[in-house]
Specification:
single chain, alpha/beta, Rossmann fold, TIM Barrel, seven-stranded mixed β-sheet, 18 helices, 18% strand
């Protein structure tokens, strides 16, 4: 069998881009480089099916399109599987163009093709197959059927071409037991190149769960996982942690929309770490209404040192309009942050500016609320209406969209909604003001510098702060030109 090549495409403009199976993707302001664990999962699936595999994380490894071309010339893979996101979709699908030049069958995965299967295939004729939603079982069946001389017509979760016609197959049911997936091939990833503010380099993701019990209108998990949560067992998580320890990887982010959604699962994972004396440092995402003192105590003892809370707004009405759920209140956010800090765990607060109902005054309220909390770091992101979300449908129905160019759908750099009472330009200005007000105050500077253990680390964080404060709209680049 010939090789199956998995590609996280090169940057279109020299900047770092974040791509993931369940994330919309964006250009990183923090120079964060995300581990391509989702591609490592797919590589493990292909290897289990008997294929030799290759993986190019072009972002982390600094591989250009010329480097991809050189690899294709030398290896001539029979398949190329590409991680593609909305905000650089033209750039990402250039990989399928190069793949076709060297005889590869081309596949794209991710939320963009999941939300817009037919439109994506129409826009990019060099895509042979698109996988909608969860990709592991669909890819395994696709390789087996096509290389066995069969027809892809009955492969659920697939969009493909048949004699010039685009065929969208039935959706595939979710994998019921995530424990059945093989351990991803972390050894194929350039782990030394991955970095995250505070955690530093040499870290990776561990898939904890897919889906969240909530259905926030702006969230892409509603596109990929349909708000149907499935969790891995503590035993399965421990098995992967032990494997990573053997690889010398001790910094972990548990990759989940809401890691703390089931407290007994969280405590079970903590017990496995503690009982087996695993030396790891880890962070996770959580909702403000899904933590308690006992759970936080277990998490701290097991090596958790930071929790990222999706607070989103300091205005309750905006949270309600975004369908954040009954528990996501301003009071709950304050309680969760204080309780987490009391447990000795740092807190990173995530906020979104520009959700429906936003005004100049609500932006100021969110800024005041963020500054009133003992946060260790903040992220103010543009509320982007990604395809497949309720927010996207609202934007279409109400005529809020300023642009239909996918390259503008970047929640770090582009505000593409214009409300009658608030323009996209005012949203961007509001984000810059939020960062200025948070960083340029005595408490903000103290919190920002606290815990910095080297001058290089301090300089890195200063550069990050400057990038946030001077945020400007990016321009998309088409690699074909």
């Amino acid at each position: 069998m010939n090789e199956v090549l998995f590609v996280n495409p090169p940057s279109p403009d020299g900047h770092i881009y974040i791509r993931d199976m369940n994330r919309s993707g964006r250009r990183s302001r923090e120079r964060t480089i995300w581990p391509q664990t989702s591609l490592a999962y797919l590589a493990a699936i292909a290897k289990r099916s008997g294929y030799p595999v290759g993986l190019l994380d072009c972002i982390a490894s600094g591989i250009s399109w010329e480097g991809v071309l050189d690899y294709l010339k030398e290896h001539r893979p029979s398949w190329i599987v590409v991680q593609a996101i909305s905000s650089v979709i033209t750039n990402d699908c250039y990989a399928t163009y190069l793949g076709k030049r060297y005889g590869s069958s081309t596949v794209i995965v991710g939320p963009h093709v999941t939300a817009l299967p037919r439109e994506t295939m129409e826009a990019f004729p060099t895509i042979d197959f698109g996988i909608m939603g969860e990709a592991e079982e669909t890819l395994e069946e696709l390789l087996t059927v096509v290389d066995g001389g069969g027809h892809p017509g009955r492969i659920r979760g697939l969009v493909y071409r048949d004699r010039g016609e685009i065929i969208v197959n039935d959706p595939r049911p979710f994998i019921e037991d995530l424990n059945s997936l093989p351990i991803p091939l972390h050894e194929l990833l350039p782990v030394d190149k991955y970095r995250l503010p505070y955690i530093g380099k040499r870290y990776t993701f561990i898939l904890h769960s897919r889906g969240c019990p909530n259905s926030c209108h702006f969230c892409r998990q509603t596109v990929m996982w349909k708000s149907e949560p499935r969790l891995r067992s503590p035993e399965s998580i421990y098995k992967e942690l032990k494997y990573l320890n053997r690889l010398g990887i001790h910094n972990i982010m548990f990759h989940a929309d809401t890691f703390t959604q089931e407290r007994e699962n969280v405590i079970g994972i903590c017990r496995e770490i503690i009982d087996n004396n695993l030396k790891i440092h880890w962070i996770c995402n959580a909702r403000v209404d899904r933590v308690d003192k006992e759970m936080l105590g277990w998490m701290k003892k097991a090596g958790c040192w930071m929790i990222n809370f999706g607070i989103e707004s300091g205005v309750q009405e905006i949270l309600n309009r975004s369908n954040k759920g009954e528990g996501a209140t301003i009071a709950a956010a304050r309680t969760a942050v204080l309780m987490t800090k009391q447990a000795g765990i740092k807190v990173w607060g995530y906020f979104m500016i520009g959700l429906p109902g936003e005004t100049r005054e609500t932006i100021r309220e969110t800024s005041r609320f963020a500054r009133s909390l003992p946060l260790d770091m903040v992220n103010f992101a543009v509320a982007a209406p990604y395809p497949g979300t309720v927010f996207y449908e609202q934007a279409i129905e109400n005529g809020w969209l300023e642009s239909s160019e996918w390259e503008d759908f970047d929640q770090n750099y582009s505000a593409i909604v214009n409300y009658p009472e608030l323009s996209g330009e005012e949203i961007m200005k509001g984000i810059r003001c939020c960062y200025l007000e948070w960083f340029l105050r005595p408490r903000g500077l103290i919190v920002f510098l606290k815990g910095m253990n080297s001058w290089s680390n301090i300089l890195q964080m200063v550069r990050i702060a400057w990038a946030h404060i001077t945020i400007r709209k990016k321009k998309g680049i088409d690699p074909r030109k």
